[in-house]
Amino acid sequence: MPRPVLLATAALAALTCAYTWPLIAHAGTVVPHDRGDPLLVTWILWWSTHAVPLTEPWWNAPAFYPAPGVLAFSESLLGLAPITAPIIALTHTPLLGYNAAFLLSYLLSGLGAYLLAFVLTRRHDASFVSAVAFAFAPYRLSHTQHLQLLSSYWMPVAIAGLHLYVDAPRWRWAVLFAGSWLLQALACGYYFFFLTMFVLLWLGWFAGGRLTIRQWARLAAAWLAAACLLAPLLLGYRSIHAFYGFKRSPVEVVSYSADFAGLWSASADSLLWGGSLRTGVGAESELFPGLTIIVLLILGFAVRAVRAERGVQGPRQPRPVQSFYIVSALLIWVLALGPRPSLFGAPVGISGPYSLLMGLPGFNGMRVPARLWMLSALCLAVLAAFVVARIESRRIRRLVAAVATFGLLLDGWPRAFPVMTAPGMRVTTTGAHARLGLPLRGNETEIMYGAIAQARPVFNGYSGYEAPQYFAMRDLLEQHDPRILDRLAAAWTSYEIPRTGMFAPGETTGTPLRVVSITTSANAHDIGAVLDGDLDTRWHAQPQTGSERIVADLGAARHVAAVVLCLGAYSAQYPRALTVEVSPDGVAWSPVYTGGTALEAYDAALRSPREVPVTLPVHRDGVRFLRLRQTAREPHYGWTIVEFRVIG
Which of 179-193, 434-448, 613-627 is predicted least confidently? Predict the structure, then answer.
């Protein structure tokens, strides 16, 4: 390895230790930032050493018990396994594996940017500036709890592989690109989509007209081979997400898009900017690139303009490399603004180009468009290298590189790197099959992490998606409703709760009856959606005021066994208190069901997670009209019905 690369590696390692101090001194007992996502990721990394990846037991990770396919609720993080799995297997300390991957994310991101910059500039000093700009970008301070986002080191390697391949179309460069793309996709699901989009943009800019058909075929073959290796994981996610009906709503995507004001918003943890650049736009929108990178870019443009005025031209290229990274940085920032750009949270009245991406497969699962900014940060790091590399005087170039490095570090340096002591493992001597940790709110990841010691499933859970039954279970426990404990202990002994045998009632069978008409006292415009056979449309009343009414007409007197209210993707929006009444004529009404529906929602979510068919018994003859009266107040959650069914 060349001496400059060794020195750069040592410098980046030392900077990483200083930047994250005291993490390295307590790597087996503390987590960065908080006890939320870091403990979840630690739990996922541990599970991939406990079960064979891509097998059914692996997908059925032991949280949100007994829901299946839980690992697909979040990132698989298989791209981190080469780092974490050996450490966890040897030390039996999952937290040590997590923190090793965390520390290496800075070092390896720097080295990846160093490689890309060196491929483009052939200057070690400029490459080190790029390494520091990317590894310690201010944006990373806003995501110290998101290891998968920090693990961006394969992106610059993949792009470097493309540059090398276009210059010399050999198999090794095609394999370098494809392998790096694969590992990056396995490390972070967001980067699978975002990097793929960037690669297509890169190919359109650089490769068109420069590669022969044979060279295109070689690159495509390497990429296809990598895609085939990734396919089982993607198909697993697709199957499980379809089983649950998981997708992100447009409201979520808009909420987690970047804000225009994010360009001058920095993390509160920033030493230099945390006290002054606070705009209130949220951590996902903290995109301030740093003053140093801005000054470098201005300097670069100024030098270029002066040289152009004096008639000094560099080598002419049909599509200059610098122009690509300038255009890409701007384009990706615009995409990060999401489908409906905003300024200080207020829509600016124009549609963003990201709305076009939302129609593509997979993008409906991307909740946070703002995370595209990591690619912009990489483009800016490359541009910083170009600015330094264009300085012809070696002495001046090294001086500028040193000053730039200091400024970049100052822009991204934390005032005090946030760490928290990890909770202890929870070891019990009971023969419990599954564990329920209380209280439920605020400590779900601690319960999951604590259960690692005995590898027990937990009813609790925390992830990118929530199991459909979880909200109802939590609601019942917080209401101290003993029926939920009967359900949890129906088939197993859980601590001191004896086995109850109180299984959920079976699915009501019968003939679906046609509903001739349906009316409501709230949101009458959408009530037709409950009869359209589409689980993606809904009727919704927000909030629950206690005065909502729905009346269904069957057209003739019929025997009715049950009424079914499908919640679909809105499993938390069941009626808090419901009275179901029947009538032969719409005048005289008889109640057939009165009470809450939380337990029914819990049972329905486990029975059919996609539909969540809350089934309420009726068992009456001579019924033409059914009336549903919601009688409770719930200010935070509305009442949703995606499909309304009557069973005869």
Answer: 434-448
